[in-house]
Structure formats: C-alpha cells, structure tokens
Design a protein that fits this description.
about 130 residues; homotetramer; 2 helices; four-stranded antiparallel sheet; two-stranded antiparallel ribbon; alpha+beta
Chain lengths: ~130, ~130, ~130, ~130
C-alpha cells in the first residue's frame, strides 16, 4: 500500500520550521508524545471510587490543552475499585486499567491513536488506529 | 521544650510491628510520605482553567484514601492560568503553585503538615504546622 | 513536497496488526512516545554534580531498551549545577536542561527526533529532525 | 514506653521557624518526604540489566543531596531482569522491586527509615526502623 503525503505548516504553528516531515507524521508524533506523557504521569496515582471520575477528567482536560489535540477520551477500568477494608487497601493506576484515545490534527492530516492494554500481548500498547487526509 | 510521647498501635494497623517510634513520629512520617509523593506526582502536570478543579479534587481524594489521613486541602494557584493564544501556550504545575495541607492521625497523635512555596526561601517547603495529643 | 510511503510489518513486531499506518508514521510515533515519557519521568528529579552522569545514563539505557529504538543521546545542562551552600540549595531537572535525541527504526523507515528547549519559543520542543527510507 | 524529646534548630536550617515539632519528628518527616518522592519518581521507570546500576546510583545521589539526609542505600531487585526476547519484552520498576533505606539527621535526632515490599502485607511499606538521640 502506498500513499502520497504532503508537508504543510499549520498557521498557528510557530515551531513549524523545526519539523522535517509530512503532516501525517507530525500528527502521529504529537499523539505519541501525549500518550507517552500521560502514561508516566498517571501510573502509580492513587485511585478510588471517589476520585476516579476526577482523574479521568484531569487526564482528558490535561491532554486537550496540548498542541494539535482535537479530541480525547480517557477511561479507567473500575473493576478493581472497591471499598477499603484497612488503611493499606487502596489501588494505584496500572497500565492494565487505562484506555485513552486521542485525535490529533495537523494541517491536512488527522490521526486517532490509542493506549490500551492488550491481553494477548500482556502489554499496555500505544498504537495508531487511523491516519486520514482532511 | 520537652514533651513525653507514647507508642501505641492503631488497631487497624496490620503493619504496626514494623515501626519503632512514637505515635507522633508515625503521624508526621505518614504526612511526609504523602507530601513527597503528591509533589512528584503532580509537578509537570498540564493545568488549565478547565481542569484545575478536577486536578485539585484528584489530589485531595488520592491522598485521603491513603493510610492514616484524616483530612486534606489542596489549592492550585490560578494566577497564571489563562486563555491559550497559541498551541504552545499552556501551563504545567510547578512548586510555586501548590498549597497542600494534610491532617494525619495515628493512635493518640494528630499532626497537620503542609506543602507551600515560601517566597523568602524561594523553596516549596514541606513543614509540620502542628503535632498534638488527641 | 510529496513522498510515497510503504507499510510493512517488522517481523519482530507481534503488535503489528494493531497499527494502521506507514513505516514512517510508526517510527515517529514510537519516538514521540519515548520523548513524552522521558519528559514526565525525569522532570522534577533531583540533580547534582554527583548524579548527573548516572541520570543521563539511566535515561539513555531506559529508552534504548524500549521497542524500535536504535540510538539515544541524552544531555543534561550542567550550567546551574553547583556546590550546595545550604540544605535547601539543590536543583531539580527542568525542561530547559534536557537535550535528548532518539533514533527509531521501523521496517523501511528511520527517524531522528529530539527534545530540546528552544529559547525563541520559550518551550521544551519535541520535534522531528529527519525521516528517511533505509 | 515514653521518651523525652527536645526541639532545636539546626543552624543550617533557614526554614526552622516554620516547624512546630521535636527534632525526632522533624527527622522522620524528612525521611518520609524522600521515600514518598522516590517511590513516585521511579515507579514505572524502564529498568534493564544495562541501566539498573545507574538507576540505583541516580536514586542514592538524588536523595543524598536533599535536606538533612546522612546516608542512603537503594537496591533494585534483579530477579526479573533478563535478556529481551522481543521489542515489548522489557521491565518497569514496581513497588515489589525497591528496597531503599534512608538515614536522616536533624539537630539531636537521627532516624533510619525504609521502603521495602512486605510479602505478608502485599504492600510496599515505608516504615521507621529506628529513632535515636545523637
């Protein structure tokens, strides 16, 4: 499979001159940065039935404000969250619990990338679901 | 100044045997752990007018669920938060912006500890505001 | 400018089926993940004349072991590192101090990406220096 | 058990006026801060046979430079470290792998505190091994 790609500079992008790449490459690079950052930011964070909603919104809004992000969905698996039985009985965020999908747009390109734990790989995979011309 | 201190074991504390200290020492130690953790957890997090409330609640609830915490207040300074002018114009949490106060209780001791940027020290200081017998 | 791109699957890549993209897009995505992660991992870390070498090597080796990385260089600016004058006089890593360059390879594509503070942008920029066919 | 405690101000401590506590409480509080910080700093870090030594030294030196620390030992369990078989086969630091012991000193008090995974608690416990008058 083969695609023709273009390189443009988003008029809002004062850093555009530093990038030697197509719009599609830029869009997926920006998504990779956000996913790599969110992972290291939130792994190990304390999560409970009381703060899980706020934690999701903190993630979504924290990514949305970053460059070239159009849309973000973040879901933390609640299966293991439960009432505390003793002071040491609390949960921290692991790679298994996160499902984050980010849509980025740069110039003529839009991409959807995702962080999700893949059971058969036993790995929290960050992957590219879609790259499209807009 | 001199105080007599006691050592007890909180009945909920299945880890009590590991600690060789007074209740007061235990209470401030637990507060120190939480403040040290919250600092490294949230420094560098993206913060905006949209997510600052969620970020504060994430902090409060994330600490509250940890061992021997009675009460938590967290405030993020909003002075620098503003509308974005371009994609690179966003703010991340720094030590100057955080004000977090934690009340911990262990056995007969209660302590109030705080993280706050002290202008004259130019340092985000974690300190012990109060230690009391309850 | 326009380039034809190809999509292959690296034979070592058991996650290849999840990616809908060209080799070039995959290579820059992998680089973005690593740069985004390293930034959030090390911002705020305590750095001194004694541990700055180890910190650089920890970064380099920690990235090198991740998927599809061929080469890593990491440099922490030592300008602000100095002898301590009092207990509160120590330095933590900021975005201004880091210069990290990562070469990733996927299938037929190789890319060089970089994290570096750009004075005129006043921003620690992550950017794509080169994308090439190999 | 009961101990008489004293409050002094370390002459190097320009923040001393903010603390309302004994030297012993101060010493354990400082240890708690460092242990809480190191945990959140290094959990999730990529670790391999090549970088595990540097990671330990980065921890030790990073803590040693902080206020009122006399001595630090850090050990990362190497049992799970091994040769990579495929790109996704790498290890990140978990609470089970860390054993960190910190000696802090404030005024007339010295304390030894530790982070270690306790099998019977299934918890990475931070605890106070010793508090002594010096």
């Amino acid at each position: 499979m083969s695609k023709a790609k273009v390189e443009t500079v988003d008029t809002r992008d004062k850093a555009g001159e530093f990038f030697k790449c197509t719009d599609e490459e830029r869009a997926v690079f920006e998504a990779g940065i956000k996913l790599g950052g969110i992972y290291h930011q939130f792994i190990g964070a304390t999560v409970s039935p009381e703060n899980v909603d706020h934690l999701e919104k903190t993630m979504v809004n924290g990514i949305t404000v970053q460059p070239f992000v159009e849309h973000v969905e973040a879901h933390i698996d609640r299966t293991e969250l439960k009432e505390k039985r003793d002071p040491y009985d609390y949960i921290t965020v692991t790679g298994k619990m996160l499902d984050v999908r980010i849509t980025t747009r740069y110039g003529t390109a839009r991409t959807v990338c995702r962080l999700r734990y893949i059971d058969e790989l036993r790995y929290p995979l960050m992957y590219i679901e879609k790259v499209e011309r807009v």
